[in-house]
Amino acid sequence: MKIGSRIKKALRVVRREGLLRLLILSLLKIEKELRKSSKSDKVKFKINFLTKYNDALRADWSGNPYVPPKAKKTAPYSINWVMSPPDRGGGHQNIFRFIKYLEDQGHTCRIYLYSVHDLPTIGEVKQRLAKSYPDTRAEIRWLDNRMEPADAIFATGWETAYPVFNDKSNAHKFYFVQDFEPYFYPVSSEYVLAENTYRFNFFGITAGGWLAHKLNRDYGMPTANYDFGADKQLYRYTNDKPRKEVFFYARPVTARRGFELGIMALQLFHEKMPDYTITLAGWDVSDYAIPFPYKNLKSLQLNELSDVYNQSAAALVISLTNMSLIPLELLATGVIPVVTDGPNNREVSDNKYIQYTASSPQALADALVEVVTKKDLPKYVKEASKSVQGLNWDASCAKFEEILKEKLNG
After folding, report:
1. What does each of the 410 residues of the chain score in pLDDT, given as a tens digit?
2. Domain 53-229+399-409 carries which CATH code?
3. What would the DSSP string read from start to end of 194-227?
4. 298 three-class SS
5. DSSP for 176-196, written as a single string
6. Cα–Cα distance, 282 to 296 (Å, whole number)
7. Burial 326-360 (b: 16+ CB within 10 A, else e)
8. Identical fold between 53-229+399-409 and 245-391
9. What is the CATH topology of the domain spanning 245-391?
10. What are phi and psi of 323, to 5 degrees?
11. What residues does each domain of the chain span?
């Protein structure tokens, strides 16, 4: 249609139906043209998981199950570890703790990075590790389709179990399990994909007894476990003075840490004990409407935590899946942890100084009040610190190596 004809048509519309009608017709015309032009190049939603789509697609664990090799291996071993790129998390810290121990015992470890979303360079990964991770000799590379031959391969998270399952080598396949990862999701495809990895028939070495029992009972997964330790180099009792703070590991982006539940409990605690400073660390919570005064320490390096803990008499630790590493670390610094009760926590540690409590805001708040008003509290927290002196990661790592040898030596 020529420009002159379009103008005449527009004027007729304005005279008969008004300017608003012309505007509506113009917008409808534009929308029609946009739809027509975008049909051929419309962007499609891509199915995305934490694991690579094709790795999940090819892992036929139900039709072609993994059968562990029968060949015996003698120490020292070569061990491939498949993991997401490490950052600040305690889970990666723990993996590197075990890698270093194995290296110190003469074994060779290699690290293969696997990720869909976080894709740093190897140089950037090494910079992350330099901040507070144990120093290892392990070669680090990105996982492509193949790994160097090894005696053992460890999956370290549900997403890494898929490429490990698909690996065609004769390595013995293990699963280093630190949490029940289906709980990280609502009931969904990702929940099922994570849960299925416990049916791969890998040998699971788990963080604490709860996971070992659950995975063996519910999925028939062969398992053994090591006990938690406390790093005496990082976490020390240094403050004998009265403590007027309460600590909360506040991480709203990690649902299993129960941020909202903790905030409710701390609001009730503040109403009863307003003279106590409430310290939040783990995430920058300045954008959240928190209904009480607080100190926002945001994200801290691991080597900064001991000094922070030593200012607190009690700490709120909400662990809704496997027990956190934090309670024993807190005890080492003389802090009494108030922890949500349940087998997921009690089957990991039965330390008498952990205040296990029902997971209601009122019960958690009452437990915090009970701790900070305890008679002879300075003496009590010092005794609590001594209660974990016999727990150390060397013993946990030695147990880990013992399990590894038993499986590989037959």
Report:
1. 556 566 666 556 545 556 656 566 676 777 777 666 555 567 788 899 999 999 999 999 999 999 999 999 999 999 999 999 998 778 999 999 999 999 999 999 999 999 999 899 999 999 999 877 889 999 999 998 789 999 999 999 999 999 999 999 999 999 999 999 999 999 999 999 999 999 999 999 999 999 999 999 999 999 999 999 998 888 999 999 999 999 999 999 999 999 999 999 999 999 999 999 999 999 999 999 999 999 999 998 888 999 999 999 999 999 999 999 999 999 999 999 999 999 999 999 999 999 999 999 999 999 999 999 999 999 999 999 999 998 999 999 999 999 999 999 97
2. 3.40.50.11090
3. HHHGGGS-PEEEEESHHHHHHHHHHH---EEEE-
4. coil
5. EE-S-GGGGS-SSHHHHHHHH
6. 9
7. bbbbbbbbbbbbbbbebebbbbbbebebbbbbebe
8. yes
9. Rossmann fold (3.40.50)
10. -60, 140
11. 53-229+399-409, 245-391
pTM of the complete model: 0.86
Q: How far apart are CA 107 and CA 136, in angstroms?
A: 12
Sort strands 295-296 and 312-317 into parallel, antiparallel or unpaired.
unpaired
Torsion angle in degrees (nearest 10) through CA of 365, 367, 372, 376: 170
Distance CA 309, CA 384 (A): 14
How is 249-263 classified by DSSP, letter by letter?
E--TT-GGG-HHHHH
Contacts of 340 (CB under 8 A, 6+ apart): 258, 317, 318, 319, 320, 356, 357, 358, 359, 364
- Retrieve residue 256's tokens: 């299993």
By C-alpha distance, which of 226, 273, 216 is closest to 246?
273
CA–CA separation, 246 and 232 (whole Å): 22
Q: Which two structure tokens, joined as six digits, stand for 346?
A: 């009690």
Phi and psi of 378, rounded to 5°?
-55, -40
Residues in the chain: 410
Is the bond preceding residue 76 a cis peptide, omega within 30 degrees?
Answer: yes
Look up residue 206 and give its two tokens: 């788990």
- Decide the pairing of beta strands 152-155 and 78-83: parallel
- How crowded is residue 207: how many other Cβ atoms within 10 Å of its Cβ? 22
Contact assessment for residue 84 and residue 117, using Cβ atoms and an 8 Å cutoff: no
Q: Tell me which H or E stretch contains 141.
A: strand 139-142
Q: How many CB atoms lie within 10 A of CB 29?
A: 10
Helix, strand or coil, per DSSP, at residue 280: strand
